[in-house]
Specification:
Blueprint: H1 2-20, E1 32-36, H2 41-52, E2 56-61, H3 64-74, E3 81-85, H4 91-105, E4 110-113, H5 128-156, E5 159-164, H6 168-171, H7 177-196, E6 202-208, H8 222-227, H9 232-235, H10 241-253, E7 258-260, H11 264-271, H12 273-287, H13 290-297
Parallel strand pairs: 1-2, 1-4, 2-3, 4-5, 5-6, 6-7
């Protein structure tokens, strides 16, 4: 037993020492970066961040007009940009994104799986069609997009895959049941794939944003969750989209495996899960009009 304890202690010290070592940032100049869900919100901001580092950008989303707007915005950086209108929950569109990117730029150096649907409200009354669409995009599309891009990266022994998840996948808050399940799947997929690819030159990371200021969250009734109850602000603040975009780029530049945003609550989940659950109970069942809050969350999926 003592030998086992010493072994674990030495292992812990080694990984602590490794965490203190400086990592030389990877250059993004002329790297080909495919960003799904690039027409708005986190994807749009991420495109700006990569363009600042002189990467070549492939913008993927369903709305061609919105993609063209983002492309025009990136002109200020002198970035080379390709837009591909596509629905990455569809097999034919996934393959088309990869083939068109390779035809234009030759290869894919970085894949940012950002496209996703949100969903809130009571699970028992949730629309089954929307659940299916959400899982097709958030889980199936992300996994399949990664699978199609991966072989060429493995052949070159070089590449980065960044999966944009959510702290909902670890906090498991009421009113986000199906959505939390989809993001939990992204988390476990990312970790398992990272371990599977260890030593093969392809790096896998997951970024977990918290509440983020986007067009989607603008529909949320923030008087219930952020402004009225000051305890929530420091524990899980509403974050700017640029902060999330920078985290995604940093995951590539510094080869990070996990970046968790969203304030104190996600960290508390790992250390004191029972305390977090008690706090959630107080917040959802004591401090607020729970019915109103959960109904507000339903707007996230529309």
């Amino acid at each position: 037993m003592r030998k086992l304890f010493v072994l674990f202690a030495l292992g812990g010290l080694y990984w602590w020492w490794r965490s203190l070592q400086e990592v030389t940032p990877s250059s993004l100049v002329n790297k080909v970066v495919v960003i799904t869900g690039a027409s708005a919100g986190i994807g749009r901001a991420t495109a700006h961040q990569f363009a600042r580092y002189k990467a070549r950008i492939v913008l993927v989303a369903r709305r061609e007009e919105a993609l063209n707007e983002v492309k025009n915005e990136l002109a200020r950086y002198g970035a080379e940009v390709l837009i591909i209108p596509a629905d990455v929950s569809l097999e034919k569109d996934i393959k088309r994104v990869v083939s068109q990117t390779e035809a234009k730029f030759g290869q894919i150096d970085v894949l940012v799986n950002n496209a996703g649907l949100s969903m809130g409200g009571y699970f028992e009354t949730a629309d089954s069609t929307h659940i299916r669409k959400m899982l097709d995009l958030n889980v199936k599309g992300l996994i399949r997009m990664t699978q199609v891009v991966l072989p060429a990266m493995l052949e070159r022994k070089s590449g980065y895959i960044v999966n944009v998840s959510s702290v909902a996948g670890i906090l498991n808050a009421p009113g986000e049941t199906a959505y939390a399940a989809s993001k939990s799947a992204v988390n476990t997929f990312s970790d398992a794939l990272r371990r599977e690819l260890h030593g093969k030159g392809v790096h896998v990371a997951k970024v977990l944003p918290g509440w983020t200021k986007t067009d989607m969250t603008a529909k949320l009734d923030t008087t219930l969750s952020f402004d009225q109850y000051s305890i929530v602000n420091p524990l899980m603040p509403m974050q700017d989209v640029e902060l999330v975009a920078k985290a995604i780029v940093d995951a590539v530049r510094f080869r990070k495996s996990t970046i968790v945003l969203g304030g104190v609550l996600p960290q508390m989940n790992a250390i004191l899960p029972r305390l977090l659950e008690w706090m959630q109970d107080v917040f959802y069942f004591k401090l607020i009009d729970k019915e109103h809050f959960v109904e507000s969350l339903e707007e996230l999926g529309t």
